Automatic annotation (TrEMBL):
InterPro entries: FAD/NAD-bd_sf, GDP_dissociation_inhibitor, Rab_escort, RAE1_2_domI_C
Organism listed in the record: Phaethon lepturus
Primary subcellular site in the record, as a coarse category: cytoplasm
Keyword Secreted among record annotations: no
Biased composition (Acidic residues): 604-613
Signal peptide: 1-18
Family: Belongs to the Rab GDI family.
Protein name: Rab proteins geranylgeranyltransferase component A 2
UniProt GO cellular component terms: cytosol; nucleus; Rab-protein geranylgeranyltransferase complex
Pfam families assigned: GDI, RAE1_2_domI_C
Amino acid sequence: TKFVIACVLSGLPESIIAAACARSGQRVLHVDSRNYYGGNWASFSFSGLLSWIKENQQKTGISDECEDWRKLILENEDVISLSKKGKTIQHVEDFCFGDQDSAEDVEEAGALPKLPVFGASGAEGVAQDSEKESPPLESALPEAESWEPEKATGTEPASAREGNDTEITSERESSHSTALGESALELGKTEAAPSEISAQEPKKITYSQIVREGRRFNIDLVSKLLYSRGLLIDLLIKSNVSRYAEFKNATRILAFREGKVEQVPCSRADVFNSRQLTMVEKRMLMKFLTFCLDYEQHPDEYQDYENSTFAQFLRTRKLTPSLQHFVLYSIAMVSETHCSTLEGLQATKKFLQCLGRYGNTPFLFPLYGQGEIPQCFCRMCAVFGGIYCLRHSVRCLVVDKGSGRCKAIVDQFGQRISANYFIVEDSYLSESVCANVCYRQISRAVLITDQSVLNTDSEQQVSILMVPPVDVGKPAVCIIELCSSTMTCMKDTYLVHLTCPSTKTAREDLEPVVQKLFNLNTEKETGNEELERPGVLWAVYFNMRDSSGIDKNSYDGLPSNVYVCSGPDSALGNDCAVKQAETIFQEMFPTEEFCPPPPNPEDIIYDEDEIAPEESGFSNSPETKPEPPTEESSSTAVKKEDNE
């Protein structure tokens, strides 16, 4: 069988490309040597993450199941060997700070009653057919304020009060009352009831409880948020992949200044109601933010500082030190030393434009973790005929000596699979191919804590915090704190992600920040200051390769029909992955639309010749398949493997 597209590994860019190709009618084969979807974009249950940690600490190799595959190579063919073991994760260190009361004898509890479309990593199968999807929210949620004067009274839906989940629709369809299965992006409806704040200590959580409730954790390898007007949200809406996921608003943006964590006002009303700013500061801030919204129209105000850093430019704008701090770390969210003036203005404008679409902050978070997003696109690909094979590694690319094009791949069983185009994730390329590539690294840490970094009336907060560099030469650290209503951690705990560009090992980069914000002494006998800080129950540090922004010509000897996708980058959003996927798709199929919406089953007109095979279940045309039956018939292709 010859395929048009063969994708190796199921990260976010590869999954988007596979979905786009399948939607345009191409035959797609998607293989992954791992037993889970997403690669370095995946999410794990707690036990799944422990297995992942053990695997990356041991660095065991993968043995060939078939040593004879080279016999399949003809005389007029060359091979490009692929790596059997990814080397994108380094310096993995995990620590337990809680009571490990006989946790070795504790087993993870059974599956949760209901899982999302592909569930958390380690869950089985596709959760529910689209026929069983929840009905849409009846009415648009209350509108949030916009920084743009002309859009302040727009008709776009926005989030309700803090902690509520939201429905997303495209602006063009806001007048159509679209249902969830048609063009709406539903954000989970689980409304978090506000909890009562007490002066008592947080409930003590033991390690055995974490292990027992391990399936309630969905721990991302890469920590990101979705900008409400970002490329990924637009793609989810346009392609109708939005129906496969649920999202929650990021409820607050925090700042760390003078040793304290405080909430940053985001909306216009928040700014004027804030007690942190004086009236003069409020006017100064509003004037500067208004300028940032249309800074391109006033080049005379910034062109003299284009070669300066954004921090230096802010000092010339007559902003107080506290306002400079808020703009730099809580609005633009950029580095003080490495961000130019133009980059800072662009980041500030993007932040302001995203305000008010779905809530008082610009960000959304996918319920059950970032690992859901690649799986959503994998499901779309499978719906339109894509074939998926997990635990199926590829040994090499077969290249024709005459044309220089790649003809096929050879898998672990010695099977030769032909295709026209090949998509390969960077981690699969051998060292000889990547000899001239210079990689960056990302430092990551994941903490399980017993309380929030900033306690408020509601425990169900999704927070983002940029911590300034703790020392000269150190990068700023992005912290995302998730509550249990995001379906990423058990009740009475928080999941905290720390990310920054690497300068050393992840632990060396991030532990100073952890020590400033959290209490590593679980006995809590060191005074009131320790009592106020959240206690860390468990932590893991690791470095991840950042292969974004590498030109294809940097790889040695790759044929023209082999395209390389990068792993996760250190940016907060997902724009890099979406841009890369669209660029590769357009290079392969320049006349095709990228991820168009699927047809509605009720709008499909069948020809008489197609009715008979359709009723017999043998039609392979994605344009003539009602989606629910197709998902049911192809669910085996996208079913998650149960390794527990």
